[in-house]
Write a structure and sequence with these properties.
single chain, 245 residues, mainly beta, Jelly Rolls, seven-stranded antiparallel β-sheet, five-stranded mixed β-sheet, 1 helix, 21 strands, 9% helix, globular
């Protein structure tokens, strides 16, 4: 009789043990698919690659982050207490992962899921979509009827903004070049295009997922598109901190 009771207790207890294991949440920095590539006072930049049929472990975002998708992928996002969300993400898509967000991601299709995740270390105030839906379900506030193009066939379009950070999409047509200046701000520039390198004078090459950090004292740099396709760069500009009074 005691044996049977012990067996029943074990059977009843087993789901609770599994549930506890399933709900184990790790910080983003401990998630094995996320590889820290840059850390400074403004950002943590993670290079992420998840093979098909693999999964990102359940993790928590301690600060606001923006993920830059590098290829079309089919994924399932799981968050505790919410229904699973099957999604098709597309190359160049920007996704806000707010502070406190807990999730895991499974890669469903035959395409890997590469992305660059940019953690914004300063508290972000008044987040708002501009010309793309970085925050799902929130309105678009795009005042530009079309991307602003200059004489060298470079266009830029504001994507997302907080009081601390501006995110802009830059497009350079072939075979054109573009000069990017910091305008006195710290900047992060991420190349989004798979298989399309972008040359920077003098002598640097950016490839898909590569990034460049530029401080306010950096000289203007020329980005050269020698490919047959449009090159797309996502730039983050960080507002100066107010000096203490």
């Amino acid at each position: 009789m005691n044996s049977r009771h012990s067996l029943m207790a074990t059977i009843l207890f087993f789901p609770f043990v599994c549930g506890a294991q399933e709900q184990s949440v790790i910080p983003l920095k401990s998630e094995p698919h996320h590889h820290l590539a840059l850390r400074n006072d403004y950002v943590n930049v993670y290079s992420v690659y998840v093979p098909p049929q693999d999964s990102v472990l359940l993790h928590k975002h301690d600060v606001d982050a923006i993920g830059i998708v590098m290829s079309d992928s089919e994924i399932t996002v799981r968050s505790p207490g919410k229904p699973d969300s099957q999604q098709k993400v597309v190359k160049l898509q920007l996704r806000l992962q707010s502070s406190g967000y807990v999730r895991s991601t499974s890669i469903d299709g035959d395409t890997p899921y590469p992305n660059v995740t940019v953690e914004l270390l300063a508290p972000q105030q008044s987040p708002r979509n501009l010309c793309t839906a970085v925050i799902p379900g929130q309105p678009i506030n795009c005042t530009e009827s079309s991307p602003q193009r200059d004489a060298h066939d470079r266009s830029e379009q504001s994507q997302f903004q907080t009081d601390q950070t501006n995110v802009t999409l830059n497009r350079i047509l072939p075979p054109q070049s573009a000069t990017l200046d910091t305008q006195g701000l710290s900047q992060l520039i991420v190349l989004n295009d798979a298989g399309i390198p972008c040359k920077i004078n003098p002598g640097k090459i950016l490839r898909s997922g590569d990034f460049l950090w530029r401080d306010p004292r950096s000289a203007a740099e020329i980005f050269i598109n020698n490919s047959a396709n449009e090159v797309r760069l996502v730039s983050f500009a960080f507002q100066k901190e107010r000096s203490a009074e």
